[in-house]
């Protein structure tokens, strides 16, 4: 029958309950579509790294579902009852080991380990005894890992020298003791390289014989000689090209005069071998480029003289072609030299290195590795004891943070939670380690959560975390804000916000957001106007200060210079009657509009609260709707995906869960709060002003007859309407007053 599973619902996802050993034993039967996680990193999470490395069989720094299933199957095969993985514990009972398979051998090795520690009758074994046993085995000559070091060779000086040469040529790998050694792969590659070089040298003796020095001399200058004769052929094609082909321009040569020259420098070696000319031979001594004279002299003595039978100091192109043809087979052999760190060794050097019997030396080293591997079962049982004990202690915790997120949703502390951040009067529990904030933010931004990336420092140590703020407001969360971070070990770190991803935190924050933005805009505009006014005032004060400082040096001429200034000052001080009238009309229009709006509002009567609610909803509604939509999409998955996890579901972070992940400051119960001696004192001014405003509004309502509408019987003081003739006469009378006022001001 199929195993019966239990599930719980959290984060909008059905998650499996792992509560028995049978659940672990049958985990491979559970559809992986029902797993919360499919992969996780071995670093950056709060978990024993040694246990993670033992589960990570391919050592790629990630644990995937197949590796976790293999660990469950491996542990269940070596235990009598998989329920032992649920009980956990730091010590492994010997009676808990299986009676078949690897169980008896592991029990026997556990007994030997306990005997070495003087606890032969102990019923269980712990990590301390196992670690001590591993150190002892690693220090032995043969430790079972198949890696041999120079010390493994013992008294064999020749074999020890070969191991050292393999280390130099192929590099090494650390064995169980930590010393650098060589494995079978490196040893095989070394001996294959030596054999290939010996075979190459043997072919050279047959193909080249005494011509090897000549071929090497030709190889050393081949490209430069070819370049020289190609230039000479171009010069014969066009004599005018000889000057351009000979050397760089004079300006380039003059630059060399300002630097320290050497025959080995690139500028000199890049010049042609000799002056270029039509059908000109190549000088092999004097007249050649000084940087190449030594190589050309070697070409003359080791190739030209013995192969061409000529002791001439020059070599024409025809002689060069004959010389190349003579050494062509030998040059092909030289080009076939095997590459590698041993390529420069001669046949004698190689034989001195590995001896005259290469197969015998190879067999000795491989036999030494085989002897080391023969000790592997003993070491393997000790290592298996360590792995089984660690899985007994840690496997259930990993399953409840991988297959399901029970530890997170039960608020037990998930392995991906880095610690707790205290900042801006609240604490944040949803924090994750981040390697690169910029890369992390690209994916984590899809979580629709308010994230603050903090750089944490503790002495010389540094790390970066991403903290999710899920409660409170965001008014004072900005880059540069400092806080305190406690990691899972309880160590405190200085934290500073370096990057922020803004998203709504709550509906309440979204409701107040438009008003806060409006007030912030007003404050910014007032600040700008105040700054502009201050700048203008400072300019005027500067001008006045300048005139005062130079008053004694340039006095104004009476009746001439002062007159225009006085006139301008008089013009500025006079108020235009038309301006006053325009301002009166504008204020009247504004007042009429405000009175009309207020009248319509008051006409609503008992519907006024509904109108107020409608106004508030029209302002805050859009931001609240957007916040509601984003809060419904807020999830944990993208935050962990950006940290290297492979999350199978969305893992929602609803408002209730978010309130538990970020907690604001609250006074403890029974607190007695003393008054603030530095609180703002508003005094009677605010009270009187408020009362005056209420009275003014009441009088206005009474004058307009609105009180009669609400409370019948209240008389209005509005005067009776005037006749039409009187109303018609009013504009004329007003028109007559304005000229009179103008005339009075003119007088």
Structure description:
- The structure is a single chain.
- By secondary structure, this protein is an alpha+beta fold.
- The protein is built from 28 helices and 19 strands.
- The strands form six sheets. The chain has an eight-stranded antiparallel sheet. A three-stranded antiparallel sheet has the order 4-3-18.
- Helix 5 (103-116) packs across helix 17, helix 8 (184-207) packs antiparallel against helix 16 (358-374) and helix 20 (507-549) packs across helix 23 (608-633).
- The protein is flat and about 135 Å long.
- The termini are far apart.
Quick overview:
The chain has 747 residues and is of the alpha+beta class. Helix content is 54%, strand content 11%.
């Amino acid at each position: 029958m199929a195993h019966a599973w239990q599930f719980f619902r959290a984060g909008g996802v059905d998650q499996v309950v792992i509560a028995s050993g049978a659940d672990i034993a049958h985990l491979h039967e559970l559809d992986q579509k029902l797993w919360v996680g499919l992969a996780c990193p071995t670093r950056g999470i709060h978990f024993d790294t040694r246990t993670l490395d033992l589960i990570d069989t391919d050592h790629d720094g990630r644990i995937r579902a197949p590796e976790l299933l293999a660990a469950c199957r491996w542990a269940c095969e070596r235990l009598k009852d998989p329920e032992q993985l649920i009980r956990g514990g730091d010590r492994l009972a010997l009676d808990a080991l299986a009676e078949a398979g690897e169980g008896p051998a592991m029990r026997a090795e556990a007994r030997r380990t306990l005997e070495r520690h003087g606890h032969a009758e102990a019923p269980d074994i712990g990590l301390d005894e196992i670690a001590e046993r591993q150190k002892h085995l690693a220090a032995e000559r043969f430790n079972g890992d198949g890696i041999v070091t120079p010390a493994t060779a013992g008294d064999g000086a020749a074999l020890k020298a070969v191991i050292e040469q393999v280390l130099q040529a192929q590099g090494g790998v650390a064995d169980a003791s930590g010393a650098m050694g060589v494995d079978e792969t490196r040893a095989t590659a070394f001996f294959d390289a030596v054999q290939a070089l010996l075979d190459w040298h043997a072919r050279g003796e047959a193909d080249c014989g005494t011509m090897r020095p000549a071929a090497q001399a030709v190889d050393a200058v081949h490209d430069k000689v070819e370049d020289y004769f190609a230039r000479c052929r171009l010069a014969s094609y066009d004599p005018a090209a000889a000057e351009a082909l000979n050397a760089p321009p004079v300006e380039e040569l003059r630059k060399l005069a300002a630097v320290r020259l050497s025959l080995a420098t690139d500028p000199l070696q890049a010049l042609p071998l000799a002056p270029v000319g039509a059908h000109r031979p190549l000088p092999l001594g004097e007249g050649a480029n000084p940087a190449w004279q030594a190589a050309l002299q070697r070409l003359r003595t080791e190739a030209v003289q013995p192969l061409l039978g000529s002791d001439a100091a020059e070599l024409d192109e025809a002689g060069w072609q004959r010389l190349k043809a003579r050494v062509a087979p030998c040059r092909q052999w030289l080009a076939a030299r095997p590459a590698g760190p041993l390529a420069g060794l001669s046949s004698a050097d190689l034989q001195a290195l590995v001896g005259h019997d290469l197969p015998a030396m190879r067999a000795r080293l491989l036999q030494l590795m085989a002897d080391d591997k023969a000790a592997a079962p003993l070491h393997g049982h000790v290592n298996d004891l360590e792995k089984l004990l660690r899985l007994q202690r840690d496997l259930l915790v990993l399953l409840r943070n991988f297959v399901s997120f029970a530890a997170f949703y039960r608020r037990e502390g998930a392995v991906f939670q880095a610690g707790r951040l205290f900042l801006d009067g609240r604490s944040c529990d949803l924090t994750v380690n981040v390697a690169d904030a910029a890369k992390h933010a690209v994916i984590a931004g899809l979580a629709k959560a308010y994230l603050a990336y903090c750089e944490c420092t503790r002495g010389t140590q540094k790390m970066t975390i991403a903290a999710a703020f899920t409660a409170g407001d965001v008014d004072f969360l900005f880059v540069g804000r400092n806080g305190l971070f406690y990691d899972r070990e309880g160590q405190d770190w200085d934290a500073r916000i370096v990057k922020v991803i803004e998203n709504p935190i709550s509906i309440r924050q979204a409701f107040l957001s438009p008003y806060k933005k409006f007030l912030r805009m007003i404050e910014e505009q007032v600040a700008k106007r105040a700054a502009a006014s201050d700048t203008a005032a400072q300019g005027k004060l500067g001008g006045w200060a300048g005139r005062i400082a130079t008053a004694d040096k340039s006095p104004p001429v009476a009746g001439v210079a002062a007159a225009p200034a006085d006139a301008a000052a008089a013009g500025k001080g006079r108020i235009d009657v038309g301006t006053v009238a325009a301002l009166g009309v504008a204020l009247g229009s504004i007042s009429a509009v405000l009175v009309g709006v207020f009248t319509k509002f008051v006409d609503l009567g008992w519907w006024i609260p509904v109108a107020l609610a409608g106004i508030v909803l029209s302002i805050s509604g859009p931001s609240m709707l957007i916040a509601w939509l984003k809060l419904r999409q807020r999830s944990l998955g993208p935050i962990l995906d950006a940290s290297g996890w492979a999350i199978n579901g969305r893992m929602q972070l609803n408002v209730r869960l978010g309130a538990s992940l970020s907690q604001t400051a609250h006074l403890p119960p029974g607190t007695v709060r003393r008054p603030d001696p530095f609180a703002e004192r508003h005094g009677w001014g605010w009270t009187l002003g408020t009362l005056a405003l209420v009275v003014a509004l009441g009088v206005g309502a009474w004058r307009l007859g609105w009180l009669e509408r609400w409370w019948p019987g209240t008389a209005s003081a509005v005067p009776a309407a005037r006749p039409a003739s009187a109303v018609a006469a009013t504009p004329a009378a007003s028109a007559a007053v304005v000229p009179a006022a103008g005339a009075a001001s003119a007088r």
